[in-house]
């Protein structure tokens, strides 16, 4: 259970976060394209990181299992 001063602080932070005023700022085309390009680059980096950390080890395991299966098949006596 949170202490009373902590609850009051959290409530005050929530109220201040909900009370916003418009910034009335202008984002020019250069800054906008840069922001969009940066977001695309970050998303692409995250996707490639997932592929690198998950797909390639799985691919290695599948290749190893396929090689083991091939050696098992070649060692079976012919009927």
Apparent shape: elongated
Average pLDDT level = 86
Major sheet summary line = none
Output the helix-strand order. Answer: HH
Which blocks of ≥5 consecutive residues have pLDDT under 50?
Answer: none
**Relative strand content:** under 5%
Number of strands: 0
- What is the tally of helical segments? 2
Radius of gyration: 28 Å
Residue share in helix: over 70%
Give the N-terminus to C-terminus distance in angstroms: 74 Å
| Class derived from helix and strand content | mainly alpha
Structure characterization notes:
- There is one protein chain.
- With 79 residues, the chain is mainly α.
- Helices cover 78% and strands 0% of the residues.
- The chain has helices spanning 4-18, 29-75.
- It is elongated, with a radius of gyration of 28 Å.
- The relative contact order is 0.05.
Q: Layout of SSEs?
A:
Layout: H1 4-18, H2 29-75
Tell me briefly what this model is.
The chain has about 80 residues and is mostly helical. Helices cover about 80% and strands about 0% of the residues.
Features:
single chain; mainly alpha
